[in-house]
């Protein structure tokens, strides 16, 4: 079970992904996702220069000890780059343990708590009608939960809306310098209630609706939004406000009962501890590829369960199919699972590189029973799609003030 080699791959089948392959002296290997959208090469260097040399020769079965070694042993703890590296190594070690045991990872975690994993799909459009038409398509495909994001009239670009791109890969995959998006809270408040009013008029109250504010509001503005949308019974309001100051959510919570979700930018349990233990949120949305892997995700899920907080793992286009697979294993096990974000199973190129047999039907994902995570990675296909630097946008208010994207 000795680690013989660790390879780090970066490929761009429409958008950049980082894949870690941990290879044992027996030839068994495990895969992990280390993608940090827009800062990929920082993670690659961190892994190759500072993590890999320390792991060669270690026993791959010692998942917890390796996690502690990489977390506590670094002195400069936490942070997105460091934790993405730990996450990928951790995922790969769980993949290996499952392959050695002949069991899928969800069985190693404690078996299944549900027969399938409920997903929510993304609906977006240049106007409310187009957004709801896309939502209608997802509902007809069997999805019971839809995230609605619609263009804000008067803004050049709105988060979560594709504009003239055909898919998220086209939107995010080739940005040699950060695009500058604009934002106006006033223009947003002028349209947002109408989106959910029309959605409820068209679809009734059974379909779950969510919305991602993407941290654009101040806490009191989020409180106002929560009050405005309460009558439309959202499943959750995501990233209502930036939460570097976790106390911000006390302001929101005292004004509205709208369910709150946050966590995709968090990389340790410490980032979300106060929000969870003070029950300031209802869903924690950390990603296994950013928050410390399966080991850390399990810890956060168990901590959240003590405070009636459910999981709603991040599932954006910049999480690779390896992280998606890890989430479906975790979601199959997690007793306090809420819902899983789903943006599709990738494009033609990514499917050449990442192969798995996760089935999605009627808005439900069914985990693979293959040993480990159940994902294969085709190195030669990956080499066909080389890395291309690509940034996330930055965001400015209409007066030029730099704001939260
Ligand atoms: C978004 C993400 O899916 C979501 O909830 O917040 O798509 C986010 O914009 C990306 O992960 C950023 O890389
Ligand atoms: Mg989000």
What does this structure look like?
The structure is a single chain. The protein has 405 residues and is of the alpha/beta class. The strands form four sheets. Strands 4, 5, 7, 8, 9, 10, 11, 12, 14 and 15 form a ten-stranded mixed beta sheet that branches. Helix 10 links the parallel strand 9 and strand 10. Helix 1 crosses helix 3, helix 2 packs antiparallel against helix 3 and helix 3 crosses helix 11. Bound molecules: D-mannonic acid and magnesium ion. D-mannonic acid (CS2) binds next to loops.
Radius of gyration: 20 Å
**Helix percent band:** 25-40%
Q: Mean of residue pLDDT?
A: 97
Q: Given the structure, what is the number of helices? A: 14
**Strands, total number:** 18
Structural class: alpha/beta
Strand content: 15-25%
Coarse shape: globular
Contiguous uncertain segments of 5+ residues: none
| Small molecules bound in the structure, each named once | D-mannonic acid, magnesium ion
The largest pleated sheet is described as: 10 strands, mixed
Distance between the termini: 44 Å
In short:
The protein has 405 residues and is of the alpha/beta class. It contains 14 helices and 18 strands. Helix 1 packs across helix 3 (80-101), helix 2 packs antiparallel against helix 3 and helix 3 (80-101) crosses helix 11.
């Amino acid at each position: 079970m000795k680690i013989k080699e660790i390879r780090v791959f970066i490929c761009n089948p429409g958008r950049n992904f980082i894949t870690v392959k941990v290879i044992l002296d027996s030839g068994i290997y495990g895969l992990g996702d280390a993608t940090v959208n827009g800062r990929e090469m920082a993670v690659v260097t961190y892994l190759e220069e500072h993590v890999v040399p320390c792991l060669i020769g270690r026993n791959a079965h010692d998942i917890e000890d390796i996690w502690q070694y990489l977390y506590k042993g670094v002195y400069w703890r936490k942070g997105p780059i460091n934790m993405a590296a730990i996450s990928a190594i951790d995922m790969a070690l769980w993949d290996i343990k499952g392959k050695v045991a002949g069991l899928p990872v969800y069985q190693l975690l404690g078996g299944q708590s549900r027969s399938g994993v409920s997903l929510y799909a993304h609906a977006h459009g240049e106007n409310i009608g187009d957004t709801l038409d896309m939502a209608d398509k997802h509902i007809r495909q069997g999805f019971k939960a839809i995230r609605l994001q619609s263009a804000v009239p008067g803004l050049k670009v709105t988060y979560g809306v594709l504009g003239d791109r055909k898919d998220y890969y086209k939107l995010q995959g080739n940005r040699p310098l950060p695009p500058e998006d604009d934002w106006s809270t006033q223009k947003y408040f002028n349209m947002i209630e109408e989106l959910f009013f029309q959605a409820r008029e068209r679809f009734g109250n059974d379909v779950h609706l969510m919305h991602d504010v993407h941290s654009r509001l101040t806490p009191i503005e989020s409180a106002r939004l929560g009050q405005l949308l309460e009558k439309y019974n959202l499943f959750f309001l995501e990233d209502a406000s930036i939460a570097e100051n976790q106390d911000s959510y006390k302001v929101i919570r005292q004004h509205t009962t709208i369910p709150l979700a946050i966590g995709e930018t968090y990389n340790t349990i410490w980032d979300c501890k106060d929000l969870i233990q003070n029950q300031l949120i209802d869903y924690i949305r950390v990603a296994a590829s950013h928050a410390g892997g399966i080991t850390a995700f399990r810890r956060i899920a168990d901590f959240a369960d003590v405070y009636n907080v459910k999981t709603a793992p991040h599932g954006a286009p910049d999480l690779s199919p390896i992280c998606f697979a890890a989430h479906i294993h975790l979601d199959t096990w997690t007793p306090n699972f809420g819902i899983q974000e789903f943006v599709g199973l990738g494009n033609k190129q990514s499917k050449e590189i990442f192969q798995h047999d996760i089935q999605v039907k009627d808005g439900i994902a069914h985990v693979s029973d293959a040993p480990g995570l159940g994902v294969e990675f085709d190195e030669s296909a990956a080499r066909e799609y080389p890395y291309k630097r690509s940034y996330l946008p930055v965001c400015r208010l209409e007066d030029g003030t730099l704001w939260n994207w």
